[in-house]
Amino acid sequence: MSKAIYIVTTEPNSGKSIISLGLMQLLLGRTAKVGYFRPIIDDVPKGKTDNHIDTVLSYFNVDMKPEEAFAYTRSQVVQLKNLDKDDEIVGHIIHKYKTIEKKFDFVLVEGTDFSGEGAIIEWDINVLIAKNLGIPAVILASGKNKTLGELVGNLYMAYDSFKEKGVDVLLIVANKVQPENVSIVSEGLKEKLPNDVLVGTIPVNPILGSPTLKEIAQELDAKILFGEDYINNQVGSFSVGAMQLRNYITHLKDDSLVITPGDRADIILGALQANISTNYPSLSGIVLTGGLLPEESIIKLIEGLSDIIPILSVARGTFHVTNKIGTIRPRIYAENTEKIQTSIQEFEKHIPTKELAERLITFKAKGITPRMFQYNLLQKAKSSKKHIVLPEGSDERILMATKMLIDAEAVTITLLGNRDQIISKITELDIDIDLSTINIIDPTTSDNFLDYATTLFELRKHKNVNLAMAKDLMEDVSYYGTMMVYKGHADGMVSGAVHTTQHTIRPALQFIKTKPGVSIVSSIFFMCLPNRVTVFGDCAINPNPTSEQLSEIAISSAATSAAFGIEPKVAMLSYSSGASGVGEDVDRVRKATEIIKDKRPDLKVEGPIQYDAAVDAKVGLSKLPESEVAGQASVFIFPDLNTGNNTYKAVQRETGALAIGPMLQGLNKPVNDLSRGCTVDDIFNTVIITAIQAEGF
């Protein structure tokens, strides 16, 4: 189930805080602990806190430090993007989010503000973040200065771009709509959007649209002379006191701000008197311009008044100050409880809160992105920190991957080989690794050599292996590493960077053997495609599996998929879909599917099915309209090694997908094979999945 919601706007000044505050209130009414996260914030002066973060954490008393609630400032993101470090940006955001997710029952995630440098790329960044966090979105736009068509079209385009990237949208909100147009906008949105998307329309609210004296003081760099206790007064309107008092006071309105030169004692005193008079409106404050202060006698008179509204003094002239106040963008901040409470009330009044709460509780993400998948793998490995043996200890790629794995604190590593040669290679490559953090074993001189050889002899003597032969075999790093796993002296083994597949897995087949009820060892690749992660099997081991073997490969692959957090929907691939095709190859897949349904009726499986029908919803619907798998398959079982191996490599090369594996399945202990063309990242990822596999043994 999703534990978060992402709030995103299509433009600046849309009133996003209303949604943030309203959702926090809604969530806190239904769950005990709600966290708050802003992936990217505007740059703030040193020592200052982002206003959004300060407001939410303070008002709702969220148990977080401000620095925990964001990942990057805007300038940091722009700098990293200029260096083409998008993966680093997303990876760090996922890490920060996951840290918060662990502490709270639910997380409210608030997108960017579309202000300052880099605003042009913000929409794509928000879509990317929501997709990689695997959480649904609320999309907001302002109705200010827009026609009905422009507002509805803007929101629909935003919805469509999120859906196109695989992000579910739960709620669409039109904000700052003229009160008389609320019902028209609501109907327009409902008519345009799918029925499963909730719609809210919030009218313009004067309280939320006006600045406070505090905001004005900050913008004008003003000195507060009097009335600091009322500095959060709302400014409804403002006017310049330039005419004579008898004429000026007739222009005063409720919550007016009086702007006047500091030497106009008549206007100052008249405004203060009008504020306490029952015959005139209450005022919000007074701004004195020109750097002029009232005379001492006037100051003394003001000090003696029982009720004083805020009086500010600014250095600039009346014309500049008036124009500046007109451009101030109102904000909601922690001390302004009136605006916060008004925002929550507006949210509850105009948003379908009951339906939204139900959607949030029941929402389930449809898939997982490659970045989130890799992050989850690493965190899972770190949680148990298994011991993995790498037989090819002097290979450059193995040593570099070992450095990465130790730095990540993901596993404990044992390298096999000549100790002096391995240390010399580490020095030669200038790999900064503390030798005390890794184990290095030379099989021929190890304390366990005779015990391992004797064990191998006992296990294989029925195959005419004598002790001398067992000792010879045990000098081989593949046999020694496999025996470490067999004996429980290591949790898993990864090899194949130098050795062939046969050399790597032969010892495992000889004495680790297959699990009970499993007659065949098979393999899968985790294919990390741009927007999802799927499972391909078997692409590395079995050339021409029978129907029975195909069924076992599929069942094992489904179990692997589920163990790694991917809901298994199994597609038994062939050159035809359903009952249309005939021939030995398609019949073999059809029979395998029947065996699976008989053995595991709980599994969602479809076969035979073509690849396009398995992945494309429209094609799947046209060819197999009743299928639970067509168009949404996550596990793909290929009919033979030729097809599987070529397909995974074609997908990998043509789409830029990351292929993690092969991971062997069916053995009693985890042993995995690398390709001799593997990269350092391939080794890193294979060790991680081997460590996770080891948790099940």
From TrEMBL:
Alphabetized CDD domains for the sequence: DTBS
Domain Phosphate acetyl/butaryl transferase per the UniProt entry, residue ranges: 372-691
Domain of life: Bacteria
Subcellular location: Cytoplasm
Protein's pathway: Metabolic intermediate biosynthesis; acetyl-CoA biosynthesis; acetyl-CoA from acetate: step 2/2
Catalytic activity: acetyl-CoA + phosphate = acetyl phosphate + CoA
Residue span, DRTGG domain: 215-325
EC number(s) recorded for this UniProt protein: 2.3.1.8
Keyword Cell membrane: no
One family name in Pfam for this protein: DRTGG
Subunit architecture: Homohexamer.
NCBIfam families: PRK05632.1, PRK09653.1, pta
Record text about domains: The N-terminal region seems to be important for proper quaternary structure. The C-terminal region contains the substrate-binding site.
Physiological role: Involved in acetate metabolism.
Protein name: Phosphate acetyltransferase
Organism of origin: Maribacter dokdonensis
